[in-house]
């Protein structure tokens, strides 16, 4: 595959009609890595289309190859391509330890890491409190690594026909390997892989699907990095967190004060209100716990919704002729109407933290 890409770029450079980098070696590696899983005909079509489009061969052509792979994803019926354009790990507020871990493994899927002798990373399991950034992190790491994000819906795996569920899992694995290198995102994995004894009336199908997935995860050599998320971790089968499965298991807790500040800043920028005359310290305090607990306030998802609700109040005021800036009072009014997860499910969160103490490392 690399030899074909190198010959194509060399021929384009000799023609004089196509712009090619002076030193194309890095680009050749990028294009060849992106083309893993494509037939030569598919690769020829993708590169030819990308070249004719702007009479240049550059990094943007990697995306054309990824677009070719999306066709295979859609045809599978089991996987979904997720657009991550414009995102980066900077769009994740807090979670410094998780982001550092991901940053160190960024190049392990590439040629440089393999040449150095790095093992192909298996993936990471993100557990913890709902709404605190697990799924968002999956989107952002794919964008930061420049890899396509492929989502596996566990609900599509299971079928009433005997043997079909296991076949669906094997097919999903085969497609993900065909479009690799990629990030395979399995959201709320516990919904499909529950603890032994909880498979009611499925004749052990869940156990067999689990076995197929875990065997592949432990033995795979393809550059598919799995990001699995789980909210109801108390129902996860113990095999999932056993050493040798995922490279790491992280627990994502409620954000602390500094993380709430970072999340607020991200969402104020999202609605283009970062320059409004707001007391950010006061908002951070307002988003926290009434009893002073450092991690007893809003989730990241709640902060995002809080900003959106405050914007509605600001808009209503602007219709009455008031200044269009967001105000502290807008946030107070929005908070009065919000149920806060940390208050509603405090016992459940305590149980999650107890599990995490023995099975996971903190993401923050």
From TrEMBL:
Superkingdom to which the source organism belongs? Bacteria
Q: Which SUPFAM superfamilies would you find in this protein's record?
A: P-loop containing nucleoside triphosphate hydrolases (SSF52540)
One GO MF term attached to the UniProt entry: ATP hydrolysis activity
**Pfam families (alphabetical):** AAA
Q: Does the keyword Ribonucleoprotein apply?
A: no
Please report the stretch or stretches of sequence annotated as the AAA+ ATPase domain. 120-256
Q: Which SMART domains match?
A: AAA
In terms of Gene3D superfamilies, this protein maps to: 1.10.8.60, P-loop containing nucleotide triphosphate hydrolases
Q: Which UniProt keywords apply?
A: ATP-binding, Nucleotide-binding
Asked if the keyword DNA-binding belongs to this entry, the reply reads: no
The UniProt family comment states: Belongs to the AAA ATPase family. Highly divergent.
What protein name does the entry list? Uncharacterized AAA domain-containing protein ycf46
In which organism is this protein found? Thalassobaculum fulvum
Q: Taxonomic classification, please? A: Bacteria, Pseudomonadati, Pseudomonadota, Alphaproteobacteria, Rhodospirillales
